[in-house]
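Entry 12.
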Amino acid sequence: MNSINNSSKRTQLLEMALVIDSHPNWWRFPTEKVVEGFLGTDPLFIVGDQPSTSQWNVNNRNRRGFYDTLAKIGAANAHLTDLYKLGGSSGELIRQIPDDLQEHVKFFRKEVELLNPTRVLALGDLAYQFLALLTPELTPKLKRVWHFSYAVRYSKLSEYESQLRDAIGGA
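Predicted 3D structure (tokens):
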């Protein structure tokens, strides 16, 4: 699938987005200005464990911190996704593994197959642990970075920017 052009990849991602959108309470990163969100076709994956239940409107502090940083560092076309697509409270996945987790992992693997990431950034410890456990084939490409909400909450966006740059460029 490496030879698939970006237009074809985007078309397939749009089809996958329709699947996500058809499920109640499933969520995906939206496209905004230059940040492609879930529709990003670069071989850089930025992956959370699961979406929160908080609003993610265009003025949300976390969204602004994350999306603005991605645009600033030239990673606006990264593929933004969550391993588990159903929204929940922070740490919910660690308290109880959902019965449908494998369905979500299978869907995530389709994203991986389509875009063949060269680098996978896990947003926080939980995402890193789940990705390492459930997709061990990605471990050589996997790096842990702060979750954007941590950087926003503790006013560490400049450090977050450096961390992302290092994780994207580093071996």
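Annotation: The chain has one domain: 6-169. The chain has a mean pLDDT of 93.
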